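TICKET: design request
STATUS: open
ATTACHED STRUCTURE:
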């Protein structure tokens, strides 16, 4: 049984458990069971989820804590970006760091960390409809919160993500991103860090830089490029129209992206989401930022990037049974299609 100090209810479980065989970490979190769902099973907005009942129109009036960060547009008195602690967090705050325990043969660690929400003002305006200046404000809020959270010595990894629509796991329609700071590095990131590190040992080169060089030469899977960023559909895409955005110049840390480049990132992100929305007719999607772990700064073998996954279908037996995703649109065709719409 978990020994988390600030736990109110003994029946609440909030811990990472390691699969002894695969080595993967799983988060068991019964904390979130109580959160309200404003979207129905079919992805339709529930009646009660109208703007009038939306918990993010006036977050504090709806019982949320005061913002930890707020940005205003020039000359505006109303906030445009507001960051608040999640009322239904995946992880618990605690003054003490979590430590690894053994439960018989099993390994576990209390899910201690931070879970915050980044809300933008307009209920109906997802990122693809925002201006690059507005997206720049969101990206700056991500960076500012990341830099605050990474100072906490209990934190190993900080994930920033955005869910749009019920198929993507959103329970509130109002556009919002989430920042989760956790005591472990998640399996997807750690396996890609170790893959990058093995490649670097062998070839003295970043694997992502090597892939990007090739993509730029071949042009088959490149969707967009500006002065500092490139958008591609990866060779082994996991879902149709999976799209990734990379900085052209090698960098392992999203949070260190200089301000003059963030504007170009905003342009690339808006461009990618707009193309995906046009081609797939306003689909649900997730995007997340994969950056290096908190204690790894400026490493030559990891290259930070944004992954965008349109959610057009659900995993079935083949995918669940094998971990092999079946992708019905080759990434070369997807890139051609995405290039053609803007
Ligand atoms: Zn709203
Ligand atoms: Zn690189």
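STATUS: resolved
RESOLUTION: sequence designed for all positions
ATTACHED SEQUENCE:
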């Amino acid at each position: 049984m978990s020994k988390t100090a600030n736990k109110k209810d003994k029946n609440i479980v909030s811990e990472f458990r390691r699969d002894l065989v695969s080595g993967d970490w799983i988060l068991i979190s019964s904390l979130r069971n109580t959160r309200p769902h404003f979207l129905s099973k079919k992805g339709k907005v529930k009646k009660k989820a109208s703007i009038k009942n939306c918990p993010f129109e006036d977050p504090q009036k709806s019982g949320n804590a005061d913002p930890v960060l707020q940005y205003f547009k020039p000359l505006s008195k109303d906030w445009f970006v507001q960051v608040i602690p999640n009322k239904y967090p995946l992880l618990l705050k605690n003054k003490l760091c979590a430590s690894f325990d053994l439960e018989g043969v099993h390994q576990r660690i209390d899910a201690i960390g931070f879970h915050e929400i980044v809300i933008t003002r307009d209920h109906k305006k997802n990122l693809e409809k925002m201006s690059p200046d507005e997206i720049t404000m969101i990206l700056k809020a991500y960076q500012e919160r990341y830099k605050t959270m990474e100072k906490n010595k209990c934190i190993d990894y900080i994930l920033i993500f955005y869910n749009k629509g019920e198929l993507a796991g959103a329970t509130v329609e109002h556009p919002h991103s989430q920042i989760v700071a956790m005591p472990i590095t998640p399996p997807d990131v750690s396996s890609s860090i170790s893959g990058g590190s093995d490649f670097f040992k062998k070839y003295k080169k970043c694997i992502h830089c090597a892939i990007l060089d090739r993509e730029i030469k071949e042009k088959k899977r490149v969707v967009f490029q500006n002065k500092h960023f490139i958008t591609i559909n990866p060779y082994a895409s996991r879902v149709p129209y999976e799209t990734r955005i990379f900085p052209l110049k090698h960098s392992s840390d999203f949070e260190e992206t200089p301000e003059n480049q963030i504007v170009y990132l905003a342009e690339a992100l808006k461009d990618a989401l707009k193309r995906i929305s046009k081609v797939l007719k306003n689909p649900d999607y997730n995007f997340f930022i994969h950056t290096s772990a908190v204690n790894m700064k400026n490493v030559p073998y990891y290259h930070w990037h944004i992954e965008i996954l349109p959610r057009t279908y659900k995993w079935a037996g083949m995918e669940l049974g094998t971990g092999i995703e079946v992708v019905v649109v080759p990434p070369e065709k997807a890139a051609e299609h995405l290039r053609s719409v803007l």
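CLOSING REMARK: The domain at 14-186 is CATH 3.30.428.10 (HIT family, subunit A). The CA atoms of residues 151 and 294 lie 9 Å apart.
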